[in-house]
Amino acid sequence: MPATAALHLAAEIGGPPHYDAPHYTALAQLAERGTLDFVTLGDSFARPGLDALAVLSRVAPATRRIGLVPTVTTTHTEPFHVSSAVATLDWVSRGRAGWSAEVSTTGAEARLFGRRPAAPAADLWREAADTAEVGARLWDSWEDDAEIRDVATGRFIDRAKLHYVDFEGATFTVRGPAIVPRPPQGHPVTVIDGTGGPSQDAAARHADVVLVRATTPEQAAGIRAEVRRRAATYGRDPDALRVLVALTVDLGDAETVPEPGPESGPRLAARGSYYRGGPVDLAELIGQWHRGGAVDGFHLTPITPARDLERIVNGTVALLQHRSLFRTFYPGGTLREHLGLARPASRYVLAEGRA
Amino acid sequence: MTAPTQKQMHLAAHFPGVNNTTVWSDPRSKSQIDFSSFEHLARTAERGRFDFFFLAEGLRLREHNGRIHDLDVVGRPESLTVLSALAAVTDRLGLAATVNATFNEPYELARRLATLDHLSAGRAAWNVVTSSDAFTGENFRRGGYLDRADLPQVLGSARTGGTPYTRAAEFVATARELWDTWTPDGTPRPFRHHGQHFTIEGEFTVPRSPQGHPVVIQAGDSGEGREFAASAADVIFTRHGTLEAGRTFYADVKARLAKYGREPDELKIMPGVTFVLGDSDAEAQERAAEIRLQQISPQNAILALEQIWGRDLSSYDPDGPLPEIDPVPDSTLVQGRVRIGDQLEVAARWRALSQAKGLSIRQTVIETTGRQSFIGSPETVAAELIEFVSTDAADGFILVPHLTPGGLDDFVDRVVPLLQERGAFRSEYTGSTLRSHLGLTEPVWKG
Ligand SMILES: Cc1cc2nc3c(=O)[nH]c(=O)nc-3n(C[C@H](O)[C@H](O)[C@H](O)COP(=O)(O)O)c2cc1C
Q: How many domains is chain B built from?
C-alpha cells in the first residue's frame, strides 16, 4: 500500500471583527504552535473589518513559519495593485504568502466604488481568473536572477530578464513588468473556494489550493477527482493541486462534548460542511477522510476562533500528531514547502527554453 | 539648558529611492527588497526618535529610449503592506506611504490607510501623489472606466477643466468623510458622497482610527500643488533643500494657510535632503566627492545628458566634451520620471559651465546635479540643520540616505545626539501617535 500523502490543515482566524493587531497575532501564533499549513483571514467590502492583507502583513514578523492567506477581492480593485500587495506579503513573510481570491457581487458594494454596476457572479469570476492570470504573469515578469549589480557595465539589472506581460482581458489590460521583484515563492499560493459553480473554472485554472464542500468522504473523493480532472484539461499537473475540505466547526463546551463512540463515529450535521462535536471526534473525522485518500486536508473555520482554535490546536491537532497523521514541526520555511508544492520557474524562462 | 521656546525639528527617514542617489555598487549596499533592510532602517530611525519612516512609490518601471532603465536600483515592495509589517517591529515611529490618487479609489484606499492606523496604534501617514501619465496608466484598468469624467486627465489630454489635483483634492476630502463615518463611540453610519470625480455611498468597514485621520503629506511643487497642500495637508515633502530656496518656499506656503483658516504650524515643511558625514569637514567633502562618482557612473552621466537633450547620445564619450547638437524639447525618450524643468535652458547652462571649467560630460553632470545637501562633521551638519529650522527654511527634514540599509546609522549615532543636546530635537517620544510627534491636533470629528 502506498504511503498516505501528507495531511494539510488550515484554519480561518476571522470572526467578529477586531480592530487591533494583538488579537490576530495571538491567533496566528496559536495556529503556528499547531504547525498548521496556513491561516486564512476573510475579508469583504460589505461588512465591518480591517483590510485582511494588511492584518496578515502585520502578523508576519510576529510569526516564523505559518502560511498567511488573506482574502483579496478582485472586483472593483486594481489587478496590478493586487499582484504587488500579494508579492509584498510574500517578501515580508519570507515566502509564506498566499491569497484567497473572492468576488464582490452586490449592488451595495458596487456603490462604494461608484465605478460600474454589480455584475453576475460568472462574469466576476472570469475577471477574478484574469486577475490571477495577470498576477502570476507579473510575479514571473522579473526572472529570479534579473538583479545583476554589474559594476563593469554600470547595470543594476539585466533588462533582458524583465518582461512585459501585455495582458488583455475583457475588463482590463496590464502592460507590466511588475514593480516588485519576483517574490520568494515565485508564485505566492493561490487559494480559491471552488464549491460554487461560477468559481470552478477559475479554481481549475489558477488555484494551488481548492476549497470544497462535502458531507461524506465519498462525495469529497468525487469532487477532488473532478477538480483534478478539470485542472488537467488546462494542461496542469493534478498533483500540483491541493484539495481541502472546508468545514465550519463548533467545538462547543468541553462538558457537553459527547464521548467519541466507536460505532457512531464522527458525522457532519445534516446541512453539511458544519461540524459540531468535540476536538477528539474532529480528529477522528479528519483521520478517516484523509486515510481513505478522499482529500488532501481540511480548512477549518471555527465559529468562535478565540475559543475553538485553541481546542483545534491542543485537542484535534495534538491527537493527529500523536497518531503520526500530522507533522509535529515545520520541515520547510515557505508555504509552498508546507503544502509540498514546487517553486515554479518563471514562464518567461520556460518560454525561452532556458529552464 | 536651552530655552523651551526653541523651535523643534522634525525628522523622517526616506528609504533609499529608485534613482541614482541610491548607490548600489558599494560593497555595503544590501538588498532593496528584503524585509530585513526595511526593518534595519526603521529601527534605526526609531532609535533616533524620528517622526516617521517614508516610502516613495512608482507604479511603472522607468524607461529610457523605449527600454527599461537598467542603471539604477529598482524593484520595491508595495508601501502599505510593508508598513503594516513594520508596525510589528517598531513602537512609536510614524509610517508614511506614498500612494497615488489617480490610480486608486477613495473607498479602498481610505480603508487601507485606516487599517494601517489601527494596526500601528496611530502612526499612519499618506503621501498623496498625483502622477497621472498615460505611460503609468497602462498598468491600470480601462474598459468600464473609459467614460469617466476624470479619464481624459489620466490619458494626458486637456479636454476637461480638471487636473490631477482636482481629483486628489476631492479624493482626500472623500477619504476624510469616510474616516469620519463611524461615531467616536464606535457606531457605523452610512455615508454618501456626490462630487465631480466620485459618487459613492454605503458603509465604511473601519471605525474611526486612533489618529482620527492618518497624517496627510503632499509632494508637488506647482502653485496648484502648494494650494492643495495649504488646504488639505499636514506635511509638505519638498525638494527645496537650500537655505534661500527653502526660505522662499516656506514663506510662500505658510502665507497660503490663512485663507483656509489654518495656523502656520498646522502644516510642516520638510524638504528631502541628503547628507555626508566625516570626522572633519574636509574628510566629509572627500567622501561626498567619492559618492558623487558612484552615483554618476559613466553610463549614468550619458543618461543624465540624454534626459536633458531628449535624444540618443550613446555614442558620446562620458569623459569627452558635451555634444554640439541641440536638445529636442518635449521628447518622449524618458518615461516614468518627474521632469526637471526647461531642457533648453538647462542645456545652455551645462554647456556654459563645461566650457568655462573645461569639464567632461561626466564631470559636468557631477557638478550640476544633486550635490549632497549637508556635508561635514557631525557638528557642522547639526549646526546647519538647526540654522535651517530656526531661520524658517524648513520645519524639519526627510533624510535620504545613499546606502541601503545602513545609510542612516551614522546620522543617528553622531548627529542626533548633538541635535538633542542643543535642544533642537526630542530625546524621547512624548506621545505615541505620529500626530503627537508632529505637534498636530487630532482632526475634529465631523459628525
Ligand atoms: C519631493 C517630491 C516627491 C515626490 N514623490 C513622488 C513619488 O514617490 N511617487 C510619485 O508618483 N510621484 C511623486 N512626486 C510627484 C508629485 O506627486 C507630482 O505629480 C509632481 O510633482 C507634479 O506636480 P507639481 O507640478 O505640482 O510639482 C513627488 C514630487 C515631489 C516634489
A: 2
Contact between A241 and A297 (Cβ < 8 Å): no
B24, B140, B205: residue with CB nearest A48: B205
Task: Indicate whether B330 and B187 sit together in one domain.
Answer: no
Domain boundary among B327, B349, B368: B368
The alpha-carbon radius of gyration of chain A (Å, integer) is 21
Side chain identity, residue B279: D
Cα–Cα distance, B55 to B287 (Å, whole number): 26
Do β-strands A173-174 and A167-168 pair in parallel, antiparallel, or remain unpaired?
A: antiparallel
How far apart (Å, rounded) are the C-alpha atoms in residues B129 and B107?
17
DSSP line for A94-120? TS-BEEEEE----HHHHHHHTSS----
**In-domain check, residue B159:** yes
Same domain, B38 and B104: yes
Q: Are residues B332 and B219 in the same domain?
A: no
Helices and strands in chain A, H and E counts: 12, 13
Residue A145: what pLDDT?
Answer: 97
Asked whether residue B1 carries a pLDDT value surpassing 90, the answer given is no
Please indicate if any CB of chain B lies within 8 Å of the CB of A154.
Answer: yes
The residue whose grid cell reads 503609468 is: B136
DSSP E strand stretches across A251-352: 274-276, 297-302
B203 and B318 fall within a common domain: no
Domain that holds residue B425: 10-279+373-438
The answer to whether A72 and A100 have CB atoms below 8 angstroms apart is: yes
Helix, strand, coil percent content, chain B, rounded in steps of 5: 40, 15, 45
- B167-181: pLDDT as tens digits: 999 999 999 999 999
Q: How confident is the model at residue B177, as a pLDDT?
A: 97
Asked if B104 lies within 8 A of A154 by C-beta distance, the reply is: no
Q: Which run of H or E residues covers position B354?
A: helix B343-357
- CATH number for position B382: 3.20.20.30
Ligand 1 contact via B26 beta carbon (within 6 Å): no
Phi, psi at A156, each rounded to 5°: -80, -40
DSSP for B368-418 reads HS---SEEE-HHHHHHHHHHHHHTTS-SEEEE--SSTTGGGHHIIIIIHHH
Q: Are residues B236 and B320 in the same domain?
A: no
Is residue B338 located within the same domain as residue B398? no
A269–B contact, CB cutoff 8 A: no
Residues B260 and B309 placed together within one structural domain of the fold? no
Regions of chain A with pLDDT less than 50: 1-2, 255-265
Give me the half-sphere count of Cα atoms (radius 13 Å) on the Cβ side of residue A99: 31
**pLDDT tens figures, B196-206:** 999 999 999 99
- pLDDT bracket for residue B241 (50, 70, 90): confident
**For A8-129+183-248+288-351, CATH number?**
3.20.20.30
Domain boundary, last residue among B312, B347, B368:
B368
Question: Is residue B286 in a domain?
Answer: no
ipTM summary value: 0.95
Q: In Å, how far is A221's CA from the nearest CA of chain B?
A: 38
- Let me know if residue B5 belongs to a domain: no
Q: Is there a domain that residue B443 lies in? A: no
DSSP class of residue A6 equals P
Of the two residues B420 and B337, the one the predictor is more confident about is B420
Per-residue pLDDT at B162: 66
Task: Locate the domains of chain A by residue range.
Answer: 8-129+183-248+288-351
Nearest chain A CA: its distance from B100 CA (Å): 11
Task: For A43, name the nearest residue in chain B, comparing CA atoms only.
Answer: B205
**pLDDT on residue B154:** 39
Supply the pTM of this predicted model.
0.95
Instruction: Kindly state the helix (H) or strand (E) to which residue A282 belongs, with its residue range.
Output: helix A279-291
Nearest to A175 by CA among A186, A187, A163, A188: A163
Q: ∠ CA B28-B29-B32 to the nearest 5 degrees?
A: 150
